[in-house]
Amino acid sequence: DAKTTQPTSMDCAEGRAANLPCNHSTISGNEYVYWYRQIHSQGPQYIIHGLKNNETNEMASLIITEDRKSSTLILPHATLRDTAVYYCIVRASSRDDKIIFGKGTRLHILP
Amino acid sequence: GAVVSQHPSRVICKSGTSVKIECRSLDFQATTMFWYRQFPKKSLMLMATSNEGSKATYEQGVEKDKFLINHASLTLSTLTVTSAHPEDSSFYICSAATSGSRNTGELFFGEGSRLTVL
């Protein structure tokens, strides 16, 4: 079973920041938080991952709470092309550790 | 960044035939690959873990004789849907994990292969 829970869907106005929450209260000490997104009929696309510190890259920012039981993915200036299903996943940093997907959050960017 | 390629992207076949889907890591060696299937408006479901040079590990409820996985090299894994039936119609996606110095735990996903069985 997936170790994360996310809202089923969210709306965000184009140009505004999209904040996608994720709960992972049973995360283990060696597990990272990963975010992927899937645009319709494509394979999942990696966005960002982190262990305990906040992370930022060209796509997004990841804010992880101090107790690591939840996190928020931030898309700073959402565009229509950010409409997708966003998956929050916890996984150990090992190439053999499989990813179990939850249901994700369907993000709608509104023009 | 690392790239994983799947082929074919779409395939239509008659019931009873077998279909092979290839998953290649283009610029890195993948000792482990994962195969998923996805039904419309549903999440990805892990089918099996493919390890180079050894037998695949199947998830509970996935028929190993139905979905044959071969990972003969560090850059190629194949999924063969044998004796396909309409209920096997789905979106199949592979992913590959890097190894060695590039092992950040990041998985890279292929573009997916849409199988339609008539």
| Strand residue percentage of chain B | over 45%
Looking at how many chains there are and whether they match, the oligomeric state comes to: heterodimer
Mean pLDDT of chain B: 89
Which class best fits the helix and strand makeup of chain B? mainly beta
Measured as a percent range, the helix fraction of chain A is under 10%
- What is the count of β-strands of chain B? 11
* % residues in beta strands of chain A: over 45%
**Number of helical segments with 4 or more residues of chain B:** 0
User: How are strands sequenced across the largest beta sheet of chain A?
Assistant: 1-9-8-3-4
Count of alpha/pi helices of chain A = 0
> Would you identify the regions of chain A where 5 or more consecutive residues have pLDDT less than 50?
none
Summing up helix and strand content along with how strands pair, one would put the structural category of chain A as mainly beta
Looking at this protein, list some descriptive labels.
heterodimer, A: 111 residues, mainly beta, five-stranded mixed sheet, four-stranded antiparallel sheet, 47% strand, B: 118 residues, 11 strands, 0% helix
